[in-house]
């Protein structure tokens, strides 16, 4: 497949305003054109037109699933008569991802405008913002923003001609509670665990009504797309992955943080230009481009454009843009064990194959890590993953937990062999960044 | 049908699941009682196991290389397992109830876990 179109390194950023460290107020947001897109949407009152614009823009979900946004909106808009709801899923649980809380903390009105546009388009009069309960700053910012709208006469969140009640709901900080049906369960006051699908939320979601669930970053792109036009949006990024994307750099770089980059920016450029290069200028050994629920990449992928098709070809995915790197000299066994332990703790217990797989990974990897394991433990993990993968579960945790294990075994075989041959890690002193 | 007992002298391993659901049904006590009872038996070793994937029908305890899977155990049921280990018959109520594919996967995994002296029953 041909490489995507040339990326504009000077692509405008429209989500994160440089230098903003506080929370953008309603007045500040309006002074730069905020809520004008909502105003136009309400005035024209043409949901099909809005959805058509989103389709032309090519906007896809930014929560990790990469689902076409316009398709979800149309499914809810065209659903059976009756109430429908919209949920902004700000439940950011993927380890290493900070972009949703960054958006909601500093730019709450960008998210709320997108949410209200979505509500108007699909015909919802109640919309929820779902945020993990330990994200205190994001919760405060969103609640304050909702109060600002109310005080400014936005009629419970909507504008003067569109009534939409906005509700902020804190959810548990467990990993699976960010899954969309788990979020719906949480809002309904049930345990925040995934539901059996189908039916999907677009058909039967919150309170059994058609429900649109979108990631907070996805919604944040909507006002700009409608305000500046789909063609403008398409100038940024690549044909298959238009627009900008928020990435989180945590470890291994000089300047960790959340950055807005054009889709298609090479991973190396993100690490250098955003992250200020690697610690000590050391070479990269391993890359997790989208969070620990996706496969590792080796340093060979450093020049891969950060966009969907290229990373899929490379063997991984954009995911939620939580880019983590490990440097030459670091052993990968312990980080992979830590991720396995994370998933074993994160599984919700509803699916026996998931519990079995995640537990088995921990058991086997601990044996390898402490030097008592052999290739038998690798074969054990292969067998249990094959069984659990065939059985499936209520969510995607089974393949997610397996992603780092088997990509790690394949790409960093020498680290595992080192542990088996030397009865442990003999790379003492090399810093471990997990 | 009763399973074929392993060759006299071959070591047998009793794996007791200590994950959440099985513990709620008494497997911590099962592990303790089996450990105490088998302490003087050189040919039986009681081990912990992390999860057999049969949570809904727990508590689970398996004997390998016998390939006997006890499920549906409850607190105070250690005599059922001990009875089998000391030459008695398998409890029909508590054995042979697990998904065949799951059981085969676990036997293959335990085959890779057991030391070389553990002989699979042919």
Q: Average pLDDT of chain B, to the nearest integer? A: 87
Quickly give the CATH architecture of chain B: 3-Layer(aba) Sandwich
For the largest beta-sheet of chain B, the strand count, sense and barrel status come to: 4 strands, mixed
Largest sheet of chain A: 5 strands, mixed
What is the CA–CA distance across the termini of chain B?
15 Å
- Number of E-type strands of chain A: 9
Please tell me what the overall shape of chain A is: globular
- Strand sequence of the main sheet of chain B, in spatial order? 2-1-3-4
Anisotropy-based shape of chain B: globular
Overall number of structural domains of chain B: 1
**How large is the share of residues in beta strands of chain A?**
5-15%
CATH class of chain B: Alpha Beta
What's the Cα radius of gyration of chain A?
22 Å
The structural class of chain A is alpha/beta
State the share of residues found in helices of chain B, binned by percent.
Answer: 25-40%
**Poorly predicted tracts of residues of chain A:** 1-8, 429-434
Radius of gyration of chain B: 13 Å
Q: N-to-C terminal Cα separation of chain A, in Å?
A: 34 Å
Supply the key terms.
heterodimer, A: alpha/beta, four-stranded parallel β-sheet, 43% helix, disordered N terminus, disordered C terminus, B: 122 residues, alpha+beta, Glutaredoxin, four-stranded mixed β-sheet, 32% helix, 16% strand, globular
Offer a quick outline of the entry.
By secondary structure, chain A is α/β, with parallel strands linked by helices.
Model description:
The complex is a heterodimer of chains A (434) and B (122). Chain A has 434 residues and is of the alpha/beta class. Chain A has helices spanning 26-31, 36-44, 47-57, 69-77, 99-106, 108-122, 136-151, 180-187, 216-228, 230-234, 267-274, 308-314, 333-346, 352-369, 375-391, 397-411, 413-421; strands at 85-90, 126-132, 165-171, 211-215, 244-249, 257-262, 284-288, 297-298, 322-327. The longest helix of chain A has 18 residues, at 352-369. Mean pLDDT of chain A is 92; it is low at 1-8 and 429-434. Chain B is 32% helix and 16% strand. Mean pLDDT of chain B is 87; it is low at 116-122. At the A-B interface, helix 14 and helix 15 of A face helix 4 of B.
């Amino acid at each position: 497949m041909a490489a995507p179109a040339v990326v504009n390194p000077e692509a405008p950023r429209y989500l994160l305003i440089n230098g903003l460290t506080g929370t953008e107020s309603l007045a500040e947001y309006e002074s730069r054109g905020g809520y004008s897109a909502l105003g136009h949407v309400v005035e024209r009152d043409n949901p099909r037109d809005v959805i058509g614009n989103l389709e032309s823009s090519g906007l896809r979900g930014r929560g990790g699933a990469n689902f076409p946004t316009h398709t979800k909106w149309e499914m809810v808009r065209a659903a059976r008569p009756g109430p429908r709801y919209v949920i902004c899923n700000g439940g950011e649980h993927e380890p290493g991802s900070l972009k949703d809380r960054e958006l909601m903390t500093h730019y709450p009105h960008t998210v709320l405008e997108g949410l209200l546009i979505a509500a108007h388009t699909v015909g919802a009069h109640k919309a929820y913002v779902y945020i993990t309960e330990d994200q205190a700053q994001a919760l405060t910012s969103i609640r304050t923003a909702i109060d600002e709208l109310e005080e400014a006469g936005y009629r419970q969140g909507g504008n003067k001609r569109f009534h939409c009640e906005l509700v902020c709901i804190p959810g548990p900080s467990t990993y699976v509670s960010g899954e969309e049906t788990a979020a719906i369960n949480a809002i309904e006051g049930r345990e925040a665990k995934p539901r059996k699908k189908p039916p999907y939320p677009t058909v039967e979601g919150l309170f059994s009504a058609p429900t649109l669930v979108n990631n907070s970053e996805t919604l944040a792109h909507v006002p700009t797309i409608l305000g500046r036009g789909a063609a403008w949006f398409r100038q940024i990024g690549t044909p298959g992955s238009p627009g900008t994307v928020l990435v989180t750099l945590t470890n291994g770089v000089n300047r960790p943080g959340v950055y807005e980059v054009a889709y298609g920016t090479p991973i190396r450029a993100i690490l250098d230009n955003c992250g200020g290069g690697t610690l000590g200028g050391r070479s990269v050994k391993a890359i997790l481009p989208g969070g620990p629920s996706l496969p590792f990449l080796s340093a060979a992928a450093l020049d891969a454009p950060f966009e969907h098709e290229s990373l899929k070809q490379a063997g991984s995915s954009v995911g939620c843009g939580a880019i983590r790197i490990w440097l030459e000299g670091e052993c990968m066994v312990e980080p992979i064990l830590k991720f396995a332990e994370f998933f074993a703790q994160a599984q919700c217990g509803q699916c026996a194959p998931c519990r079995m797989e995640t537990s088995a990974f921990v058991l086997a990897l601990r044996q390898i890590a402490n030097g008592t394991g052999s290739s038998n433990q690798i074969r054990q993990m292969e067998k249990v993953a094959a069984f659990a993968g065939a059985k499936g579960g209520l969510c995607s945790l089974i393949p997610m937990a397996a992603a780092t294990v088997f990509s790690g075994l394949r790409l960093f075989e020498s680290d595992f062999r080192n542990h088996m041959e030397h009865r442990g890690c003999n790379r003492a002193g090399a810093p471990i960044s997990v | 049908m009763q399973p074929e007992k392993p060759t006299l002298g071959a070591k047998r391993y009793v794996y007791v699941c200590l994950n959440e659901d099985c513990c709620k049904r008494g497997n911590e006590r099962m592990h303790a009682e089996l450990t105490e009872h088998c302490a003087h038996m050189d040919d039986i070793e009681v081990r912990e196991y992390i999860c057999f994937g049969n949570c809904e029908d727990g508590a689970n305890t398996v004997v390998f290389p016998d390939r006997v899977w006890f499920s549906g155990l409850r607190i105070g049921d250690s005599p059922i397992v001990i009875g089998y280990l000391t030459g008695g018959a398998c409890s029909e109520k508590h054995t042979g109830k697990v998904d065949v594919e799951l059981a085969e996967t676990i036997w293959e995994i335990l085959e890779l876990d057991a030391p070389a002296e553990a002989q699979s029953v042919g």
